[in-house]
């Protein structure tokens, strides 16, 4: 089913089939309060990669709102800060942070402030601010708190600019208050790693169900092999790069003289 | 049409990259320089990480310099002995440069060093060339025969380790060309340039080499230094993007014959003046980036996956 649904031309037909299938399943009360799946378990970064769409779909048992968070691998991210030194702007400041998600996006059936109680639900981080509460500055004692806040805001702003913390919340479509689906758009500059797609059902400001699905983002095909060779057989890779450049340069020289 | 660059880890338009390579190729054909001084800052500008831009650029320089070298070799315009002395310095310099590059990258200062390095280099070389071609233009207008070269022999002649360079008709200390090779080697590792536009004037004005053998001999040194830099960057820093380099090389192969055809129809001083203006324009643009308040104070540095 996944393979068929990945094909863009067959997607509408395939979706209809899926929904029909889920409908029959959902008609009697669901055995589980929340079912979730992805149109594909893996985002492959190939030579022609320009970003990717992943369909997240599922069914809920009873009324409620669905919220989906997509979180990239946890990373140690360094933030650089330009400062003016002798009239020139230099990257003079740097601060590392631990547990920064490589990517973070949210989708919901309604605006988050209508679903979540003010201040969020304890133990269930949903918004970017809540997710980033666990982010810790490395060697924090060496900096003034005000300085750390500045770097922290800079981190979020820089990630936003790169499209890695999208600030719009995607809208999840509910069908018959039972089935839901949302198409998640991933940017072309997507860090590789193990992602986690988490779906929650909120009812009266309480999380009543939660399900998590893994999503692997990895290089595939030619670009995977190139990157693998560059890291695992570095000297051979270097020699190949040199040989190719020599050969093309030589050929170009010969061709230019013939013309 | 986009192509994903597996080491730079981003997608860029193929035609944009071919165009950039083509511009470098036109420059190579017109002026006999690799065009790296233009390409590296432009690649960084379109989003390629500086480390990848510099290393892949070295890979591209191999192709342009082998094309040029073949041409000069067949005409016998390469002083191999001088080339080897330059190269000895160049290999040591570029090896040191690659290490320095890794250290600067660790401290997050590589962007700044690349930027300021380009500004200083391009401004000084560009202004020297403007002055030189303006003088040549005045001489031509006044119809005065060219003055004898004013280079001084004192330093070159006092240093030890004198070597006879037959093809260049020089009897000078090997230390000076080796030192020059070293300096160009460091520059080429850090800035991703071949160094032709620095090396050629230095060989003419500092060493007093005859103009005929200068370009061929500099290409000889540039080729082997670029090979060394590419290998070290690939083996140590894993920053050579073979896909990026290949697209640039292909663009360059198309651009180079166009450049040499344009060059054939322009007098030398005009050509040098044009190159000088181009170099100065690039220096100004980079200077502006250093002085003007940045649009974003914070940028992302290294990202390491946590266990």
TrEMBL record, chain B:
It is found in: Cell membrane; Membrane. The chain crosses the membrane at residues 12-39, 82-104, 110-131, 170-198, 204-231, 243-263, 269-288. Signal peptide: none annotated. It holds the Pfam family TauE. InterPro entries: TM_pro_TauE-like (IPR002781), TSUP/Inactive_protease-like (IPR051598). Keywords: Cell membrane, Membrane, Transmembrane, Transmembrane helix. GO terms for cellular component: plasma membrane. It is a multi-pass membrane protein. Belongs to the 4-toluene sulfonate uptake permease (TSUP) (TC 2.A.102) family. This is Probable membrane transporter protein. It comes from Vineibacter terrae. The lineage of its organism: Bacteria, Pseudomonadati, Pseudomonadota, Alphaproteobacteria, Hyphomicrobiales.
């Amino acid at each position: 089913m996944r393979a068929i649904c990945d094909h863009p031309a067959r997607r509408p037909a395939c979706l209809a089939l899926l929904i029909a299938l889920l409908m029959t399943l959902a008609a009697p009360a669901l055995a589980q309060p929340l079912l979730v799946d992805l149109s594909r378990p893996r985002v492959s970064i190939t030579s022609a990669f320009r970003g990717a769409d992943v369909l997240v779909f599922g069914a809920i048992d009873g009324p409620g709102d669905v919220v989906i968070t997509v979180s990239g691998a946890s990373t140690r991210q360094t933030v650089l800060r330009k400062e003016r030194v002798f009239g020139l702007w230099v990257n003079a400041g740097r601060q590392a942070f631990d547990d920064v998600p490589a990517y973070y996006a949210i989708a919901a059936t309604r605006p988050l402030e209508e679903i979540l109680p003010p201040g969020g639900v304890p133990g269930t981080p949903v918004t970017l601010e809540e997710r980033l509460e666990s982010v810790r500055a490395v060697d924090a004692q060496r900096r003034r708190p005000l300085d750390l806040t500045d770097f922290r805001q800079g981190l979020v702003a820089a990630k936003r600019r790169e499209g890695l913390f999208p600030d719009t919340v995607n809208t999840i479509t509910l069908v018959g208050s039972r089935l839901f689906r949302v198409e998640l758009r991933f940017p072309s500059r997507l860090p590789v790693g193990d992602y986690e797609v988490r779906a929650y059902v909120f009812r009266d400001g309480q999380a009543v169900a939660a399900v998590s699905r893994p999503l692997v983002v990895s290089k595939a095909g030619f670009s995977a092999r190139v990157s693998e060779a560059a890291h695992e057989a570095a000297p051979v890779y270097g020699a190949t790069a040199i040989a190719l450049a020599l050969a093309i340069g030589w050929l170009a020289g010969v061709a230019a003289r013939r013309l | 049409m986009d192509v994903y660059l597996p080491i730079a880890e981003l997608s860029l338009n193929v035609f944009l990259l071919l165009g950039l390579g083509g511009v470098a190729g036109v420059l190579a054909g017109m002026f006999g320089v690799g065009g790296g001084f233009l390409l590296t800052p432009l690649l960084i500008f379109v989003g390629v990480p500086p480390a990848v831009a510099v290393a892949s650029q070295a890979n591209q320089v191999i192709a342009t310099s082998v094309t040029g070298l073949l041409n000069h070799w067949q005409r016998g315009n390469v002083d191999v002995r001088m080339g080897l002395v330059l190269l000895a310095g160049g290999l040591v310099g570029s090896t040191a440069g690659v290490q320095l590059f890794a250290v600067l990258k660790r401290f997050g200062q590589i962007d700044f060093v690349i930027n300021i390095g380009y500004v200083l280099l391009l401004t000084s070389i560009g202004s020297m060339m403007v002055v030189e071609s303006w003088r040549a233009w005045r001489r031509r207008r006044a119809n005065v025969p060219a003055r004898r070269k004013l280079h001084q022999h004192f330093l070159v002649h006092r240093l030890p380790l004198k070597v006879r360079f037959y093809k260049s008709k020089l009897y000078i200390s090997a230390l000076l060309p080796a030192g020059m090779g070293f300096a160009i080697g460091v520059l080429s590792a850090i800035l991703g340039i071949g160094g032709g536009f620095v090396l050629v004037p230095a060989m003419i004005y500092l060493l007093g080499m005859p103009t005929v053998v200068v370009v061929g001999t500099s290409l000889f040194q540039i080729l082997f230094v670029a090979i060394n830099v590419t290998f070290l960057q690939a083996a140590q820093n894993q920053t050579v993007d073979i896909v990026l380099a290949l697209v640039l090389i292909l663009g360059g192969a198309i651009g180079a014959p166009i450049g040499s055809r344009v060059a054939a129809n322009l007098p030398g001083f005009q050509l040098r003046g044009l190159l000088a203006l181009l170099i100065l324009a690039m220096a100004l643009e980079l200077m502006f980036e250093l002085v003007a308040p940045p649009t974003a104070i914070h940028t992302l540095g290294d990202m390491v996956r946590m266990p």
